[in-house]
Amino acid sequence: MFDEMLASANGVRAPYAEIDRWIKETGLDDLQARRAEAETLFRKIGITFAVYGEGGDPERLIPFDLVPRVFSGREWRHLSRGIEQRARALNAFLWDVYHRGEIVKAGIIPADLVYKNEAYLPEMIGINPPGKIYSHIVGIDIVRTGEDDFLVLEDNCRTPSGVSYVLENREIMMRMFPQLFSGRRVLPVDQYPAQLRATLEEVAPPACKDDPTVVVMTPGSLNSAYYEHSFLADQMGAELVEAHDLFVEDGLVWMRTTRGPRRVDVIYRRIDDDFIDPLAFRPDSVLGVPGLFDAYRSGGVTICSAPGAGVADDKAIYIYVPEMIRFYLGEKPILKNVPTYKCGDPSDCKYVLEHLHELVVKEVHGSGGYGMLIGPKSTKAEQEAYAKRIIADPADFIAQPTLDLSACPTLTGKGIQPRHVDLRPFCLVGKNVRLTPGGLTRVALREGSLVVNSSQGGGVKDTWVLAEDL
Amino acid sequence: MLSRTAENLFWLGRYMERAESTARIIGMGARMAMMPGRGGHDEEWRSVAAATGCAGQLSDVEEVDQRDIVRTLILDRENPSSILSAIGRARENGRAVRTALTTPMWEALNDTWLKIRDIDEDAIQRNLSGHLDWVRERCALFLGAAEATHLRNDGYDFYRLGTFIERADLTLRLLDVKYFVLLPETEVVGGGRDHHQWTSLLHATSSQRAYHHVYRGDYSPWRIADFLILNRNSPRSLAFCYDRLSEHLDRLGRGYGVRHKCHLTTNEYVAILEDQDMGEIFQTGLHEFLSASIARNNRLSGEIAEAYLF
Q1: What residue ranges define each of the domains in chain A, with the CATH number in brackets?
Q2: How open is the CA angle B259-B263-B264, to the nearest 5 degrees?
Q3: Whole-model pTM above 0.95?
């Protein structure tokens, strides 16, 4: 296991020198006391995510670990080049599959994987989104297995969440431990909302002639990420709208205000494709805006991300992202994929069934860490039951080797201990590509656990990118 | 501003005012229950429930006591007028428009909710007045946060419109429940009990000291009614509420450059209250006046919603 703080031959790795000193100076008792203080702050501000229908408090806190995760300037330069490259390739892929489908014609990606994909929307064929951008906020989940080994676990091209924690975690750390930042070595993250706004304004629709009006669209205050929706709207100075606040007239989108209807140009939607427009997609949806898709198609409004962008982050498509980078950009992929076996391929499937005890198997369309089999942690009976599911529908599963994820120092009941982490940076794509240094570090708080999802006992950490290369 | 946002702010104002007023009115009941009298205090507690619009919830209870009041008017999650529900709903409205509230407003609201939702019934029964004080303090904190930090924009106007519609409603209901003790005949009957009854109205509106300053301690039903209906300096009087409603509606009218039916209704009523004296009101019937005012106030609430599309 790669310990990000302690992996160096001569003790503490250089990026963590400050953290190491701080932990020793502060002492465990003090850190434990400050952890409770941090929790009170989060609850007071109302930074919660909602879990309904499981009993208990519906508004839960994501556990926050006080010990920051640190990247040197050099490490981040490598990561950021890889992330931006990937975000550009994914958008090029989306343009392609909704136009001429060159990558399919070239035989690089099987046609069925694209055109029969549930996330592929034939309604989008031939539509030209402003700037040819489909996915404006790309969240790329990255894990580390060694000093120079970074792997992409998955891409999120629809509406990746978690960026509010990036900003709030930093706020809380700066409020509680100002001395940690007094050396001014940590790159700031608070420019994100302004950059998000600039990105959204850059993709204003052709019908917009003045300063574009940007809104954030939420399913409502019962949604688990509602705090983030309101946070981003607030930070951008945009209205936070629900579907029934909007209507379509004369090919344009309007919001109902106390002064009467007002034009909307760009919608940063945090709802799924299915619920955008009951006329175009799901007639039973009460969440959508009738006619919205028509207005989008005719250039009256821009929807971010574009409907149908999800086809690029499908787990079956993921395997081909390095090929996309070569095909569209003519570049060598900077970040590697995790080696992946497609159960739809007979020889891969055979291998997977024979090695279930050492692989992680996932449903192609699953998310949130549910429905996975973690081979080394599973019982024989669980493996047998899972094998039956794979045999019944092989194309629905992929498998990856169990990764030896890196670990970061984390405050636990037993003192500072290494816990496994991943990283989700948020890359903004408009006319320009922008990336806030750092991202959301998720940490598996249970000893030995590899699952970092907040719904399954994961927590978050402040993530630092240092100004120095080190 | 989004019409939905305006609506949420309006109701946020209403629910916070309701929580505070309900606490005041329960405080009045607790005080009356300490006064000497025959038997239990069923009648007092029933009038407390009636003044907060909750008489129906207690109609099956044979002898209403403090325990029932605490359960129904403070802790009942199903009763929209209970303090717990009012604060919960205020917070839901606030949460739906987080972007329209300042951080101190949100934190005051959220913190109040986090504490009251886990409150223990026995603790309240043991120290009712302490808990009522706490509710009033929390409401005052929210009000203060709004006063000190909110932009004086249309959002502020909608929030305050909700406050004063609700306050006018509650003052009118309180008077309507107690109007019989204010009728001139009881003045003749006199006696200690009536004195408590009159002053209880002042306690329920936290205005007994202000009343002394204005009328020099001379209690008479006529003056108490005047203080709570027509006195424009008394912050819980009907006239005061309508002065404020008119101010906030005027600001909206100027800002938006459009006036609606609600503007006309409010200004008409301000003029009526200005011209009237208590003698006329008693002559035409206090109860009739109060009922008509409650209906008018409800109508105005509807007209505001109509004008601003919520």
Answers
A1: 14-333+404-465 (no CATH), 339-401 (3.30.1490.270)
A2: 105
A3: no
